[in-house]
Design a protein that fits this description.
Blueprint (H helix, E strand, L loop, with lengths): L7 H9 L6 E10 L4 E10 L2 E5 L8 E3 L4 E4 L1 E6 L8 H8 L4 E6 L2 H7 L1 H10 L6 E6 L17 H7 L5 E7 L2 H6 L2 H9 L4 E4 L6 H10 L3 E2 L5 H9 L3 E5 L7 H4 L11 E4 L5 H6 L3 H10 L4 H7 L2 H6 L16 E4 L7 E6 L2 E5 L2 E2 L26 E2 L7 E6 L6 E6 L2 E3 L2 E3 L6 E7 L8 E7 L7 E4 L8 E5 L2 H13 L3 E6 L2 E7 L11 H17 L7 H6 L9 E4 L2 E4 L4 E3 L7
Parallel strand pairs: 1-4, 1-5, 6-7, 7-8, 8-9, 9-10, 11-12, 12-13, 19-24
Antiparallel strand pairs: 1-2, 2-3, 5-14, 14-15, 15-16, 16-17, 18-22, 19-20, 21-22, 23-24, 23-26, 25-26, 25-27, 27-28, 29-30, 30-31
Helix pairs in contact: 3-4, 5-7, 12-13
Length: about 575
């Protein structure tokens, strides 16, 4: 949206006071993230840039901020736009009015479905919108060899992608066992981006393993769940991305690790956040308010969302209010509880009072063709019981976290097959390969999902994004899975032969181009239906989607079977006999 050519000499003339600015923001209390001062002054804007920060005596075009605070636009250091279930344009409509003007995204969700074509769609669909979408080249497509994705990106493909002007570096290197072990494929990608930013992803890694991971090159981590883990990674020089996602709420647990000595090594990210949270609570703005509530100085909290990520990613044209930087600006009345009521992106007003204003139409970007190839004749959801009635491994859902536990359970058996036992909160889980029509199904058991009857299913299963379902009976699971496939992807709740609610996601089985408010209504409907079936989880679908992510401990399920992430191998459903 700010692609206007700017006469740099004219910008200098405005800075010198010899030429009239395009806009003056008068009577501001500027949050100076360099000196932690609050300056009562004006800000002059020329084109997409800040020209001066001083009292401007005469200007025809002014906005009187009447003493409101003025801060740099917020930067989300790590986000998967696809997790909003919305196109980039609709995602922007949710986050820009709340002050986020730049995001650094990893489009590996759609890349795991459509490869380079998926990333190219995300770039095209975000071109010229009021949100500046910067991209990290997806390093793990597929995430590991332990699940089947729809595409594979090697080092050469990523190097070609790096030539795009909005690509900053290499996205989260999730295959941390491969990094530590020196896997040639993983290392070839790291070497191609040795002179760029390389983001990390090392949940629970510590000691010698973490030392090897840091030595390999990743410079950040957003997977910390405890203060001790955060301290260890900060001590080794990693940039700490504090995360507050829909299903991974880590901020309050990490605050004890934050000190004035390391504040400048901290940035904020939302990672995966869905429409109700984005629209009702917020994203980065919500995290700033949380930090202030936890006792962090407001300017320090704002700096974690502005200057810190800007410097880490080499975005030297933003992150502060100073001449020559982008006029990405947010205004609010209360420094102790920033609620954004005015947003400028590239020098233009793009939101007032929480609503987008003056936006261009959405870019014309054709998504890749639908990808839903399932051999239903080969799909079987039966789990044969063992003769000796051994204990089985079950995935344990941990509320508000994407890490899982492992339980040993004695499952219910009927007619020689394992069946769900809702009374004991033991449900059946299935992952059905949907990219290549193999008919392959991974089957397992899960506790903590809470369904008393019926099933939920979806085409969002990080990061391979095969079909995934949890259910109390086979009929409900098949009904839900087939309904998801029939719409080209989405989320479905079923009870027996009946579909109770659905949310179509035809773009890669991950996103919809509908207005984000409509997506939110549909999501409320499917979440509400899942809760009627008994699930107590904040978002049962997002919780389910991470039960297939084989790079987050402890036990996960892919189409290839149960994965022990700590041991980085598939394991049998049945635990060894003692």
């Amino acid at each position: 949206m700010d692609g206007r050519p700017v006469d740099r000499y004219a910008l200098l003339a405005v800075a010198r006071g010899e030429q009239i600015p395009d806009l003056v923001l008068r009577n501001a209390r500027v949050v100076n993230v360099f000196t932690a001062e609050i300056e009562e002054t004006d800000v002059a804007v020329f084109g997409p840039y800040i020209a001066a920060v001083r009292r401007i005596p005469d200007a025809p075009n002014t906005i009187d901020l009447e003493g409101r605070f003025l801060a740099p636009g917020f930067i989300d250091a790590h986000v998967h736009i696809e997790s909003s279930l919305a196109s980039p344009y609709q995602f922007a409509r949710a986050v820009v009015p709340r002050g986020t003007t730049t995001v650094v995204c990893d489009p590996h969700e759609i890349a795991n479905v459509h490869g380079i074509a998926g990333i190219q769609y995300m770039l095209a669909a975000s071109e010229g919108i009021p949100l500046d979408v910067r991209v990290m080249a997806s390093s793990c497509v597929p995430a590991t060899p332990l699940g089947t994705a729809g595409a594979s990106l090697d080092a050469d493909a990523l190097a070609d992608l790096a030539r795009h002007p909005r690509v900053l570096g290499l996205a989260e290197v999730m295959n941390f066992p491969g990094v530590v072990a020196g896997d040639p494929d993983v290392w070839s990608k790291i070497e191609r981006f040795r002179d760029a930013v390389i983001d990390g992803h090392a949940p629970g890694l510590s000691g010698p393993g973490l030392a090897a991971y840091v030595a390999a090159g990743p410079g950040s981590d957003h997977e910390c769940t405890t203060a001790d883990e955060a301290r260890e990674k900060l001590r080794l020089g990693m940039m700490l991305f504090v995360r507050e996602a829909t299903n991974a709420r880590n901020l309050r647990d990490l605050v004890p690790a934050l000190t004035p000595a390391n504040f400048r090594r901290v940035a904020l990210c939302t990672d995966d956040r869905q429409p109700p949270d984005l629209l009702d609570i917020g994203g980065i703005d919500h995290m700033i308010r949380m930090l202030i509530e936890e006792g962090i100085d407001p300017v320090e909290a704002i700096r974690m969302a502005t200057l810190n990520p800007a410097e880490y990613f080499g975005l030297r044209d933003r992150g502060a209010i100073t001449p020559g930087r982008r006029a990405d600006l947010v205004a609010f009345r209360d420094l102790q509880r920033p609620v954004i009521d005015l947003v400028l992106a590239g020098g233009r007003v793009v939101a007032r009072d929480g609503r987008d204003v003056g936006w261009p139409d959405a870019p014309r970007a054709e998504p890749p063709p639908p990808s839903m190839h399932v051999d239903w004749d080969a799909v079987r959801l039966e789990i044969p019981a063992t003769q000796d009635r051994r204990e089985a491994r079950a995935i344990r859902v941990i509320p508000d976290q994407i890490v899982t536990g492992e339980e040993r359970v004695r499952p219910a058996v009927r007619d020689g097959r394992v069946v769900a036992d809702p009374e004991r909160d033991i449900l059946v889980m299935a992952v059905v390969e949907r990219h290549h029509g193999t008919g392959r199904v991974g089957l397992g058991l899960v506790t903590g999902a809470g369904l008393r009857r019926g099933a939920i299913a979806g085409s969002i299963a990080h990061d391979h994004h095969n079909l995934i379902a949890i259910g109390a009976d086979e009929t409900s699971m098949l009904t839900a899975l087939r309904a998801v496939a029939a719409t080209g992807g989405g989320l479905v709740v079923a009870d027996g032969d009946h579909v109770l609610a659905s949310l179509p996601l035809p773009i890669g089985g991950l996103m919809s181009a509908e207005p984000i408010e409509v997506i939110r209504e549909w999501l409320d409907a499917v979440v509400g239906a899942a809760r009627q079936l008994g699930s107590p989880l904040h978002d049962p679908f997002m919780a389910m989607s991470f039960l297939g992510l084989e790079v987050i401990p402890k036990l996960k399920l892919t189409d290839l079977g149960l994965v022990d992430v700590d041991e980085f191998r598939t394991v049998d459903l049945w635990a060894p006999a003692i």
